[in-house]
Design a protein that fits this description.
This protein has 186 residues and is α/β, with parallel strands linked by helices. The chain is built from 8 helices and 5 strands, in the order E-H-E-E-H-H-H-E-H-H-H-E-H. It has one domain. A 5-stranded mixed sheet has the order 1-2-3-4-5. 28% of the residues are buried.
Length: 186
């Protein structure tokens, strides 16, 4: 829910953990991703929704939210003695956790990319030219996702996979898969 505009980005009955509320109880001065979901195969998904324009300042905040969320999650799991995670939280998350950023396609301007987006596109061997018009078409055909906002940096480091989806792509790629899934408790 975009609380500033009282508009939902995604309308779904899928049950997730409101990770903003978890952060508030843990330490309100930290930042956090919006949601945490565990699927029927015990894979963990952190989900962040960004309805507005993502500029350099917001882009840095995405990184802060990732770091703080990972630390909150790991600390809570260790405090609760979740054995698999507690042994080596980063290794566990790197193999079992995915990150998803859902952004507003209408507010994404490929002519005004953040510095982190530019760096990420270079790492993925994709110039801003390939992003214009062909991103979705070629990426779909090649079965390769282009990760925006430099978030590809976290793939293989803190997460096994990272995705940046428009609201529609999120509905198609994730909500359809998760539709009948029953969330599992850790």
């Amino acid at each position: 829910m975009d609380t500033a505009h009282n508009t939902p980005m995604i309308d779904s009955d899928l049950k997730v953990v409101n990770f903003d509320e978890v952060k508030e109880e843990y330490r309100s001065t930290l930042k956090s991703n919006d949601a945490l979901f565990v699927d029927s195969k015990y894979r963990i998904f952190f989900i962040e929704f960004k309805n507005g324009v993502i500029r350099d300042k917001n882009n840095v905040e995405l990184y802060e939210k990732i770091y703080d969320s990972i630390n909150i999650f790991a600390d809570i799991c260790c405090e609760e003695k979740v054995d698999q995670i507690c042994r080596n939280a980063i290794s566990y998350l790197k193999n079992n956790c995915e990150y998803i950023l859902v952004y507003n396609e209408g507010k994404f301007n490929p002519d005004s990319l953040t510095e982190r987006t530019k760096s990420g596109l270079k790492r993925q061997s994709c110039s801003s030219e390939c992003l214009r018009g062909i991103k979705k078409h070629l990426a779909t055909k090649a079965k390769k996702e282009i990760v925006l906002f430099g978030l590809d940096f976290f793939r293989g480091y803190l997460f096994c996979n990272v995705h940046t989806y428009t609201a529609e792509e999120f509905r198609q790629n994730m909500l359809v898969k998760w539709g009948d899934a029953v969330p599992k408790e850790l």
